[in-house]
Amino acid sequence: MHALSRRISYFLQSTKGLALLAIAMISIVTAIWGTLSGPMVEWGVKDITVRLLGLDLDPSDREGRIVMLYHSIAMAIVAIEVYFITDIIPMKKHEQNTINATVTAGYLLSMIFGLVFAYFGHNYVFHGLFLVGQTLVFFTGVLLAAALWPWKKEYRLPLDSPYAHTKKGLDLERTAYFVMAVATLGSAMFGAVTGSYWGNGQETFLAEDLIREPIKTALQLAIIGHLHIMLTLIAVALTLIVGRWQDFKGKLHKAAMILMILGTIVITLGVWSVVPYEAQAHTIIYVGSVPVMFSALLFVIFSWDKLIRTGLTERNITKGNFIQKMQALLRDPLRFGVGWQMVFMNFTVSGVGLFMAAKLDEVIRVWSHREERITLTGHWHILSAIVATIILMYFADLAGLKGKARRWFGWILIIGSDIAFASVTVFSLKRLFITEAAQQPLVDMTMLLTDLGLGAVLVVLAAFMLWRLFDLFLKNGRWSQEYTEAGLGEDVELIEAQALPAQAMENKGGQVK
Amino acid sequence: MMKKTILILAMFMLILTACSSYETADAEVTVYDTGVNPDDWALIPAGEFFMGLNAHETMLDYDYEIMVTTVTNAQFTAYFNDALTDGAIEMDDSGVVVYYAGDEFHAHKHEERIDAGNWPVYPLDALGYRIEFDGNYFSTVAGYENHPVTSVTWFGANAYCEYYDFRLPTEAEWEKAARGVDQRAYAWGDEIETNYANYYASHDPSEAVYGRQGDTTPVGFYNGETHAGYETFNAVSPYGLYDMGGNVWQWTDSVYKGEHYRYLRGGSKGTYEYNLRVWTRNSVTPTHSSISVGFRCVRDQ
């Protein structure tokens, strides 16, 4: 019983345990729900899943089910980011505990009851619990924003700190997190209020089905804005998180944080203005996107430069040649991969998006709506999946993946996912290259490569999760070490646990009063 | 730089397209006689019905008739020959063209002008097209006589219907004809299995030849009978219509203010099954020509 309670404590109280639980939940949902679409339908796997689980897939509820599924997964992703933020950003222990507990209850309620409501008959009690969960996640955001408040004196940085700060010591990275949190709260309300007020839970639609409506209603505009900004802000948060993981600092850090703060504010305001000022909103969003993307670029430059420098130093090379530098850069696929996925995103997401915007009437809108729809859904599925791979890279590092296992995991994650993303991009833009009558071989090949790529990712993810699952059965496994590190062990004094935020602050060159 | 990029992309496409043993839309066709008469019409009585995903009660206060099947290649070939003789259609370098009186233009964002003039009907000599022209006379590719005509633009579909004093259905007329007065998801009911309709990876006989996108099936193919060993379920709509889901998208007549797009209904052999739901909409420019698009006409009572 004691062993079980220790493991439960690990899962519900330590950052790594909480993140592992959320990743496991998403993995299970992805594994099951992934069988309901695409090639899995063609292979008959969907029918097996439906029969085994007794799913109720009323065709008229498809759009509603998809909305619930997206929200279920998104809540868990938000929770994972929250765990990481409360772990790496200095805050009081009770704030960290309250925030983590609230978001855990919130995402679990949302995910479990949202999916049960959507896929197992419509019991509105479960829908209510889904909304309770979402409300808790929103409330977590309020708590997080309060905890992140950057103008508290104790969180000011010393003026000689290498981390971005103002002349008065205001921590600009903390400010970027704070801005992101507040923007997320407003953007969540942007979807929730409009959805509740106009939709009343009954009028379901998917944004990709309305793109060609010449005049969109306020509800439609708000929902389209909501889904775009939420995904954007998830990406912003993750960029900040991995920046801290790789100890982003110096001049590039300062420039990046200023750009990230400005960009986040401008993009968010642009999206919020989409209802009253649709035409102008697009311009504002484009303007805001530039500094955010530039900020991410600065992180990639810092990250790769650091990898090269430390790699050369490890081998006692003062000034390496090109090959030596590449060896240094590529020696750790997890740290390299985070920046690489951001760069790769420009080809499969941002580049495609810019092309579509530039050639909308000339090319894209000459195709049928269904073809355009494929490019849109491909576009944000790829972005979401890139976010997921970056989270996995970060977590694999946190989880202590080392040596060959780290390299295999990292490289398969990068290569597998990028093959899949590139294939989906080619598939979604196939009408640029090939006619409908001749497309089948191309479709087959891109689908095959997509499946192979995603399959490889899922295999290494499954291996990783199984490693962590078996570890739980060990008395002194990795989980036990992480349990103790989190200050949950019996032998850890309470005062030590309370000192954790102070330690985090000191690591960043700051002070806690 | 641009040329290099295009060259690399073209080589990549060549490699990808070379990796399949499927025919590319011009293989020999198996002939099936479904016993369904494409000259038949069904009466749709006036009254309310449920329209759209969210099932809004909608009134159509008039009776109308709609073709029981989509227009076939044989029917359209006959029209081409008659219309060419009458001067109702013309030939130019792009293929067959027809005069259209134009749409009102509202200068809305993304809206394009559809002015009065000649517009394309059917581009000849392209891959997967089923009607041929020898310089004087149109003919159907052998075996495809009772398949739905495809590759006809909206202008062509509209011209066909008007030539016989019919018209294209509005979206509401199409949906009511498909759904009847209940809230079913598909024309034949709420369930879908591969034997109900021709859609992507539905395992119809043509998929063995052409891959999962397949080819068109003859009109009325899914009538509950077994065709050369392939069992079909009876996918007839409440008013006795065939192919109101899958096989080919169907042009409708609805033109909305601020848009030049025309709307299509029904899903096709190249789409997943959820596109076969009666409320699913697709839209495209009226000049669009696709091997997955056909049409049927309505006539007023």
Describe the structure.
Chain A is mostly helical and 513 residues long. Chain A has a domain at 1-148. Chain A contains 19 helices and no strands. Chain A is globular and about 60 Å long. The two termini of chain A are 40 Å apart. Chain B is of the alpha+beta class. Chain B is 18% helix and 20% strand. Chain B has 5 helices and 16 strands. Chain B has helices at residues 2-17, 73-86, 154-163, 171-179, 207-210, and strands at residues 41-44, 47-51, 56-60, 64-67, 89-92, 95-100, 117-122, 131-133, 138-140, 226-227, 230-231, 249-251, 262-265, 281-284, 293-294, 298-300. In chain B, the strands form 6 sheets. Chain B has a 4-stranded mixed sheet with strand order 14-13-12-15, with helices on one face. In chain B, strands 1-4-16 form a 3-stranded antiparallel sheet, with helices on one face. Chain B is globular. In chain B, 48% of the residues are buried. Classes of the chains: A mainly alpha (513), B alpha+beta (301). Chains A and B meet through helix 16 of A and helix 1 and strand 14 of B.
Largest sheet of chain B: 4 strands, mixed
Helix percentage of chain A: over 70%
Strand order, largest beta sheet of chain B: 14-13-12-15
**What does the overall shape of chain B look like?**
globular
Ranges of chain B where pLDDT stays below 50 over 5 or more residues in a row are: none
Q: Determine the number of helices of chain B (DSSP H or I, runs of at least 4 residues).
A: 5
Rounded average pLDDT of chain A? 91
| Shape call of chain A | globular
Rg from alpha-carbon coordinates of chain B: 19 Å
Overall pLDDT of chain B: 91
Structural class of chain B: alpha+beta
Question: What's the alpha carbon Rg of chain A, rounded to whole Å?
Answer: 23 Å
Q: Determine the number of helices of chain A (DSSP H or I, runs of at least 4 residues).
A: 19
According to DSSP, the number of beta strands of chain B is: 16
The greatest interface between two protein chains, and residues involved on each side, is: A-B, 39 and 57 residues
Strand element count of chain A: 0
Q: In CATH terms, what is the architecture of chain B? A: Alpha-Beta Complex
| Low-confidence parts of chain A | 491-503, 509-513
What's the CATH first level of chain B?
Alpha Beta
